Amino acid sequence: MSRNIYHNKNQDSSISISKMDVIIPFSPDVPCDNNGQRMWWAFLASSMVTFFGGLFIILLWRTLKYLWTVCCHCNTKKKEAQKVNNPANSQAADGTPKGPDEKDEVVPASEVGWMTSVKDWAGVMISAQTLTGRVLVVLVFALSIGALGIYFIDSSDPIESCQNFYKDFTLQIDMFFNVFFLLYFGLRFIAANDKLWFWLEVNSVVDFFTVPPVFVSVYLNRSWLGLRFLRALRLIQFSEILQFLNILKTSNSIKLVNLCSIFISTWLTAAGFIHLVENSGDPWENFQNSQSLSYWECVYLLMVTMSTVGYGDVYAKTTLGRLFMVFFILGGLAMFARYVPEIAALILNRKKYGGSYNSTRGRKHIVVCGHITLESVSNFLKDFLHKDRDDVNVEIVFLHNISPNLELEALFKRHFTQVEFYQGSVLNPHDLARVKIESADACLILANKYCPDPDAEDASNIMRVISIKNYSPKIRIITQMLQYHNKAHLLNIPSWNWKEGDDAICLAELKAGFIAQSCLAQGLSTMLANLFSMRSFIEIEEDTWQKYYLEGVANEMYTEYLSSAFVGLSFPAVCELCYVKLKLLLIAIENKSELGESSILINPGNHVKMQEGTLGFFIASDAKEVKRAFFYCKACHDDITDPKRIKKCGCKRPKMSVYKQMKLACCFDCGRSERDCSCMSGSVHCNMDTLQRAYPLSSVSVHDCATTLRAFEDEHPSTLSPKKKQRNGGMRNSPNNSPKMMRHDPLLIPGNEQMENMDMNVKQYDSTGMFHWCPSKEIEKVILTRSEASMTVLSGHVVVCIFGDVTSALVGLRNLVMPLRASNFHYHELKPIVFVGSLEYLRREWETLHNFPKVSILPGTPLSRADLRAVNINLCDMCVILSANQNNIDDASLQDKECILASLNIKSMQFDDSIGLLQANSQGFTPPGMDRSSPDSSPVHGLVRQASVTTGANIPIITELVNDSNVQFLDQDDDDDPDTELYLTQPFACGTAFAVSVLDSLMSATYFNDNILTLIRTLVTGGATPELEALLAEENALRGGYSTPQTLANRDRCRVAQLALYDGPFADLGDGGCYGDLFCKALKTYNMLCFGIYRLRDAHLATPSQCTKRYVITNPPYEFELVPTDLIFCLMQFDHNAGQSRASLSHSSHSSHSSSKKSSSVHSIPTTNRQNRSSKAREAGHKQNATRMNRMSQERKWFTDEPENAYPRNIQIKPMSTHMANQINQYKSTSSLIPPIREVEDEC
């Protein structure tokens, strides 16, 4: 265009002018050079003079300042030397010192202060520390982008042209922007500490080459596009501006913006330079080699150049352009190869897992964090989203700082309707806000069960709890903990409140508790693990042991509120009704005290009456079946035989009156119908207000309602006729209401019994009354050598084989011992515990074990058969194999090598039965729990007795495993596939193997019902309470306490036991009887609640089998056929008289077998002759001390903490056969060398 104008003008004026001098457009309207000569050098000179002139002034100033400083420094040294030599010169002629104003050099303080204040003010203005500074910084950036936009507009015009400042609007705006930039440059210059480095900054260079040319344009009425493209370098500060505005908060977003801004600013700046030189040409070529390229074509050229594509459609022609492209390719290619993939990765990751959770209206969500792996997530989802639960209307949000791998990502996609994953950390409040933690229903924290350092893993989870509670104090948290002692740290968190649903699932505590319960009832660990896990029903047609096992596996634990039809009935009555009619097994209820505190009562007995709104704990196959207990209506469903037809009816259920509740309970006790019963007369009904005020009914009555009625009748004798009195008097002697069958209150035990139970001088229990306790002992006093152990009669004991060393993590043996020392066992019922393992490791654990009685240590190794024979492992009730070294091995298949080797070693041992026969039939050697002096009708005859063991394969063993797949190595005769799930394998079904992975299901079970965790801890820990945990957090040891009525009342709780059907009161049902009949008989007669069977594996075979392995059957149906070899799992009531009858056996040991059968014993059937029973009890009490003293001199002490007044365990033995007597005489010499097991303390 400029060339055309030039040629036209040349033709009109006929003036010969060289083409080089006439290259810019001009017109008469714009007062510009009429010759059209280029003056680009004037614009460039203004920038260069400004830059180098300022640089020269700064350097000159620094040089002068340096010279001045050197001179002043020399003078100062001379003056200081003079002051040192002549200190008198520093004083005035009159001898007075110089005043503060009389200085050699006076520096005006006002000038220094003014400069400093201006410098500080300028620094605050440009540092964005104040609101004004932030506004100024943002405004400068915005104006820089605006100036860049004006450049884009002007780039469509020629490089240099004549412009009238007063008529060109864009030039006016650009002038305004640059005036502002000049002022901001002045602020920056004043605030700069180092003026030289400030002058060389990128932003300063941008100002030098963009601001002065604008003023030159106004003066010359010319516009030169020049170096205004340098304003694009301001884009580098884009991330800083966004951070000032709190838009960028995460490191990834800041990094992404930084990369993009650097890449774009470099790209645009280089395109501007190419646009300038290509449209101008080379100066040494008289600008003849220029080409017309738009700015955006130059942008395109640089992009294809950086990407190494180079199509060739646009290229540089000038020498300057080509030279620039050579250097730009080196840097641009490196920048493109580095920045673009990183930008793409950040953008893709941000879109995938970096968003925020959007909650769905009407749908709750939970946050799961911690140890997020394929195994932990799959186990959690399989149990949480199980079909047996009600419709789970909950979304699961996983939060983890590491992106999932392909397998885990595929798992999330399969559950995309209910599962979302976000990458982040719960320690970052921003990430907590992304997952809406404040509105979440709960937060679940998973732990790494295989971590080599459990304390470090617990510390990480505790920090997660602290972070979450700090962000949202009211959020409910359920966390997994590995070590029991680390639970105490959770109590230090102010907002941690277990009453509001916060729970800590301690894997070590529960694992040890499950194993300890297996020591009391073998196979119980498997049954409990299956009950608290959601398993689908697998139907098998063949008549194999797997068929019956899997039918029981399909049962789970559920909770439901009881219908008002059960109000007023006792717990055994409701339990029987639910099992027989509703096909549900009720094992516990929730009791709320008058203060609002709730507790769980497991098989509480017939003294507990159901009230309105009682929560029950049921064993059933799915949640729909449990609804029957809530919908049951006596009027509508009384005659229904099919439990599936029991559904919600239209009956109105008003709250039952107190009179109705008491009459219903009374009628049930007397065995009559409500219509025929005359227990309550009309006058009683009329005086019900008085009765209610005198005897209010709590949520769970402490006494029987019938007893309350009788008390009312005694106060109002005229209300009942003599016939009715006689009828009620006869009711007192009925089996259901006899004193033996009712729950005993320690305060109601008469005379000597109460005094012995409440011995205020001896500490027999801990301060809570939940565990047996003894004064702390030094570990050297409980160490047994191999010879001492061989000379000690060990029978009915528990052998704990532990692998560990000085560096091993502690497994928490206290959690294993505590359930075995629960106070609901009498002292003589406690099984001695012998630890076999490294003494160095056991020393570390001993601090938590030194307050438990009947504990001893044999230093050695569980792989040594000599050590195992020394502790009579063939006579033990259970052998537990544990390892503290499992998580220190990387190879998963080798993690359980020690436990597997120890188990196989024990199973391959052979034993001589002669010693076992001798010890099992000699007086004083009967194992604990085998009380042969009790009557044949007592359920103690049904307790499991120790069988003859001649091979290690028959020794009861439970082995702890870390890796589930290693269970295939425990049993060599099973057909388990390596890929079979743990609960389907034979060792787990038989209760001989236990893995901590089965506890994963407790996370989801606790979320859906927080009472489940309380129930399982009550069952397996022996009575651990939050109060006890707080005590252990203070002292890390049990504290002894004196026996008080309150602590003794804590002993009154049921325990798990196993009943055998080949002997005892249930022997008639063992051969072909129905399980339902056994259930009802045990419940009515002894208040025992049966809930499963431990059956021989080959019991279904027609031919006899030598296999002694058993498997678990949970909650069999009513018509399930029993066999004589079955063992029945039951919840047995605590008997206060067991200890007294235990003491009375000392006196009766010399009496005949017939007289011993008539003496008082454990769980004896009550007789109507109460006077004979009382006299015998008093007689036994008078002779108890004498019997103890006579036997003391004949016995040697085994436990070193045995008190002086301890008495031996004397048990009446039934008459022996001639053959057995001959065997005993044969080994008489041997028996004289074996001392009997001694009791440590007096029985209460």
Automatic annotation (TrEMBL):
Residues 83-105, 715-743, 1142-1190 are annotated as: Disordered. Keywords: Calcium, Cell membrane, Ion channel, Ion transport, Magnesium, Membrane, Metal-binding, Potassium, Potassium channel, Potassium transport, Transmembrane, Transmembrane helix, Transport, Voltage-gated channel. The chain crosses the membrane at residues 39-61, 135-153, 173-191, 256-277, 293-311, 323-341. It is a multi-pass membrane protein. Coiled coil: none annotated. Residues 363-505, 795-939 form the RCK N-terminal domain. The keyword Nucleus does not apply. Residues 83-93, 1165-1174 have a biased composition (Polar residues). The keyword Acyltransferase does not apply. Residues 1144-1164 have a biased composition (Low complexity). It catalyses: K(+)(in) = K(+)(out). It is found in: Cell membrane. GO terms for cellular component: monoatomic ion channel complex; postsynaptic membrane. Belongs to the potassium channel family. Calcium-activated (TC 1.A.1.3) subfamily. KCa1.1/KCNMA1 sub-subfamily. This is Calcium-activated potassium channel subunit alpha-1. It comes from Oncorhynchus mykiss (Rainbow trout).
